[in-house]
Amino acid sequence: MHTLILHDQAIEYRNESQQKPPRKLAETKQISADAVLQAAKQHTATVWRGDFYQGKQLLDAIKKRIRKPAKSADNPADAFHKYRLAQSQQSREINMLLIEIDAHFVLNLPRAPDVQAALLDVYGEYNSERFLLPFNQLLGFIGAHEWHKKGVVIAALNDAKIHVPFGVFSPLRGEYLDLILQAKLPENCQLAFDIGTGSGILAILLAQRGVCKILATDNNPRAVQCAHANVARLGFDLQIDVLQQDYFPSGLANLIVCNPPWLPAKPTSAIETALYDPNHTMLKHILAESGNFLAENGELWLIMSDLAEHLGLRDSGSLQTWFAQFGWKIAAQWETAPRHSKAIGQHDALSFARQKERTYLFCLQKI
């Protein structure tokens, strides 16, 4: 937790991104986007005191000024790192426009909406003290809350919905879920582990396919709560237990499933840990330790994308090398092409790689 000084008093500063807090604060009801950005260069954040919707317009103007086309790069890895650096710099500048949240998540700005439910969804309990928050993150919380209520339709679940709050990775990319339905389960599959369950979607798919018992683990309290709620809502709470812990529960499973982060890069926020993992640490741990938690003739199912290879972040063939290094053979392999908007669009800075991407389900057995 960070504290800043406002009116000679300490006030908490909250930011979901791993950014350094501003050194100074300035308050205003009227200011230009250029002035906010100029103050940000001096490590001064602007606390917005004006009309809520005028604040949104100011935020939009800031984004238009700083969002520029990606710089050219000599190779895919350079393109990725420049893209990530630009994202980080833009996020820092955008997050220098702040709003103050009063006790019990009250936003005292003219024409401000009721943000209590959205903030309670994020933080889990009401605040007794005021705090500062990036305006852009508040809007993100509001949008995430609406998606949490609405839910994401999952075709692999016969169009049932998964409800995902802020801070938990949403299964919007449905192509890898179809792979889980296609693969043949190990014989007499009585017990399965879902490692890093997130929303609980993989555990739910296995329960739908008839696996008697699934133990789903995650070290993110938000994910555990989310998975519990989805499992109960869809009626699988007798088959699935959700546990807050790292990696493997006790026992020997017939099947272990895992969808580890796909890109070997440093996350800049908690939600990005579902996407980025330096040096594929989680993947390698899963490969190294899963054999100790598998029953005889058990299988490890890994969901992986080859996007890292197209971005020059991982050598082609590295996955197969690691499989062999840790004593695994590929018993079956399934693949599909992504269908999300970035994979087919031309305007994303990394579209050159996304358009070549394939997502794989590797069904592995111990050698």
UniProtKB/TrEMBL annotation:
Keywords: Methyltransferase, S-adenosyl-L-methionine, Transferase. The keyword Transferase applies. Residues 162-306 form the Methyltransferase small domain. One of its GO terms (molecular function) is protein-glutamine N-methyltransferase activity. CDD domains: AdoMet_MTases (cd02440). GO terms for biological process: methylation. Pfam families: MTS. InterPro entries: DNA_methylase_N6_adenine_CS, N5-glutamine_MTase, SAM-dependent_MTases_sf, Small_mtfrase_dom. This is Methyltransferase small domain-containing protein.
